[in-house]
Design brief:
Radius of gyration: 34 Å
Distance between the termini: 72 Å
Number of helices: 2
Largest sheet: 6 strands, antiparallel
Mean pLDDT: 86
Low-confidence stretches: 1-22, 111-127
Shape: flat
Structural class: mainly beta
Number of strands: 37
Strand content: over 45%
Oligomer: single chain
């Protein structure tokens, strides 16, 4: 039975079948519905490509035809994207896949015609009027809920001639760098990066760049060559520098180049950290130095709010605001506590500051230790001055320096003074007197107990 007025839905998804291992057929041999599938695949690929001007389709395709689906896929090159979780490997190879779900005739009901409910030609017969159906093809992005349409077509003739289909799915997936065999012969070569213009390859531990038909563009003189968003990063004799495919050096030489996860942070996209002669700075996408080489190292610690780095200089540490490079503070040591607070050390004394430089605990104490995340975002600290301890939180000191020891639990703190123990809460309010020789939890009786000499006293406190 003919299928009239149907909706073909085409969407991107993350799934694809492992047909890339099959032998590809030449695109020049496409006929019938497969030829139309290929045409739709190309049109959708160009609409969804990162850069349609860079798209190059491999000359082969793979197809699988089973009982329920017909699936066609094609490799293509496009603008490069990250391929692995280390954020250092890029690929320009992608796989586009289109899958058509075959129409299945509904089971014939007893006493019925077996005709599909949307077969409106039957209504024409009843009304004795001629009716010319319209056929629709709707292409949508991935997503099962309200997928966005990317291609719509209609016709007074069926789109497909060889079969009836109720659904089309389309996906694009980045793939490991794969060479088009019609352009390159990769026998004996490892592939670091490839597109239709050139391939970064290795042979026997040395790396170079070849063009289509395997002509050498960059000689195999390098320890490594990687594709990056900033160009080809070459390594030779322990130094790094950028080159083009004519083997021209584009940048200065560095002992270290880092770009990795910074490319996911909008304000840092387009910058790299580099080191030269033991000093670190940033360069931009044109290899311009954006700040003098004055720091031994630069470490990003805050990505929310103002971007803040720790810079090491003259055996001290500066908190640096980017992109102004203003030093917010400068101490012997700076360590991140959370998204707002920093431990700082200066001339043997410790404090806690907010990242704007405002003090929470002055830099005046012998030691400060973060003790509890139980009540985050309010954090609690033990603060040592001489041989005594005080309780503090993100608003400052809560107690004087009364205690010889603080032991933190989820709802209370055990304190020691002399040889006696007691309990306080996180608001520094006493829960018991400081009078016990020991305080322990009795698992059998499910209660806290304090001992005074040989006497045991129950402490009315739930187990924490």
């Amino acid at each position: 039975m003919a299928l009239h007025n149907f909706l073909l839905i085409l969407f991107l998804s993350v799934s694809c079948w492992a047909q890339q291992k099959e032998n590809a057929k030449p695109v020049s041999g496409l006929t019938g519905d497969e030829k139309l599938m290929y045409s739709i695949l190309k049109e959708c690929t160009l609409k969804q490509a990162k850069d349609s001007k860079q798209v190059y389709f491999f000359p082969g395709y793979n197809v699988r035809n089973d009982r329920d689906y017909i699936t066609l896929s094609v490799y293509f090159y496009d603008a490069a994207s990250l391929y692995n979780t280390s954020l250092t490997t890029y690929t320009a190879t992608y796989l586009a896949t289109i899958r058509l779900k075959k129409y299945t005739e509904p089971a014939k009901q007893e006493g019925g015609t077996g005709r599909a409910s949307y077969d409106y030609v039957s209504k024409d017969r009843e009304s004795k009027k001629s009716f010319k159906p319209t056929y629709y093809l709707v292409v949508s992005e991935s997503g099962e809920i309200n997928p966005k349409s990317i291609l719509e077509k209609k016709s007074d003739r069926p789109f497909f001639k060889d079969g009836n289909y109720t659904e089309i799915k389309f996906d694009i997936n980045p793939k490991e760098n794969k060479a088009d065999e019609s352009l390159y012969n990769m026998a004996g070569l490892s592939v670091n990066f490839v597109n239709d213009q050139y391939a970064v390859v290795g042979s026997k531990g040395r790396f170079g760049v070849i063009g289509p038909k395997n002509q050498t563009l960059v000689p195999f003189d390098y320890n490594d060559i990687k594709y990056t968003p900033f160009g080809l990063l070459a390594k030779k004799d322990g130094t790094y520098f950028f080159i083009d495919i004519k083997n021209q050096q584009l940048s200065d030489s560095y002992s270290e180049v880092k770009y990795d996860f910074w490319q996911a942070i909008p304000l840092l996209k387009g910058y790299m950290k580099v080191k030269k002669d033991g000093k670190a700075t940033f360069i931009d996408a044109k290899y311009n130095v954006v700040h003098p080489y004055v720091y031994d190292d630069l470490k990003l610690i805050y990505t929310t709010g103002p971007l803040l780095f720790i810079g090491v200089r003259n055996n001290k540490q500066a908190l640096i605001s980017f992109p102004s490079w203003k030093e917010v503070m400068f101490f012997d040591k700076i360590e991140k506590v959370d998204e707002e607070l920093l431990f700082v050390e200066n001339e043997g004394k410790f404090g806690v500051l907010r990242k704007d430089g405002k003090p929470v605990l002055d830099i005046a104490y012998d030691a400060i230790k973060l003790e509890s995340y139980y009540t985050y975002p309010t954090l609690y600290f033990s603060v040592k001055q001489g041989n005594s301890y005080a309780l503090a939180h993100t608003s400052g000191l809560l107690t004087p320096f009364l205690y010889d020891e603080l032991l933190f639990y989820s709802s209370h703190i055990q304190v020691k003074k002399g040889n006696k123990y007691g309990l306080i809460n996180y608001q520094a309010k006493p829960l018991t007197e400081i009078k016990y020789n020991t305080i322990k939890y009795n698992e059998k009786l499910k209660q806290y107990e304090g001992t005074i000499n040989s006497l045991v006293e129950r402490i009315p406190l739930a187990k924490q």
